[in-house]
């Protein structure tokens, strides 16, 4: 499955990316890591083993785009707009559901502090791979 720079990702390629992304050790490494080139080089190698020829920059760009689209749809759903959808929403929801999000909270003295909270925490445990 050859794919060059700038080519659209096929459904199979996205599914392969999601399967690698869903692994617990990958999710842990991606969360909160700003300099993540090494992680995406590893992801690109893993995808190559699955027959997906994408470089680390393409993997990172697709990761960021999927995450942005997911958050846009999630925000719309939380605002009552259930008409907004995306193809891999449920897969991404399973991956991103327990990811901590930094929220800015105003303190009494006017300063702001960052706190971490979990999105959609539920009594079930995270046992995805």
TrEMBL record:
Coiled coil: none annotated. InterPro entries: Myb_DNA-bind_4. Residues 7-95 form the Myb/SANT-like DNA-binding domain. Signal peptide: none annotated. This is ZSC20 protein. It comes from Casuarius casuarius (Southern cassowary). The lineage of its organism: Eukaryota, Metazoa, Chordata, Craniata, Vertebrata.
């Amino acid at each position: 499955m050859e794919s060059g720079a700038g080519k659209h990702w096929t459904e199979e390629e996205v599914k392969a990316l999601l399967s690698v992304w869903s692994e617990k050790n990958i999710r842990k490494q991606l969360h909160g890591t700003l300099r993540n080139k090494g992680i995406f080089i590893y992801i690109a190698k893993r995808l190559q083993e699955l027959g997906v020829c994408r470089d680390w920059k393409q993997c990172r760009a697709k990761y960021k785009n999927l995450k942005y689209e997911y958050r846009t749809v999630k925000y719309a759903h939380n605002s009552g707009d259930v008409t907004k959808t995306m193809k891999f929403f449920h897969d991404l929801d399973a991956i991103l559901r327990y990811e901590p999000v930094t929220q800015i909270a105003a303190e009494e003295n006017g300063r702001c502090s960052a706190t971490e909270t979990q999105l959609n925490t539920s009594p079930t445990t995270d046992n995805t791979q």
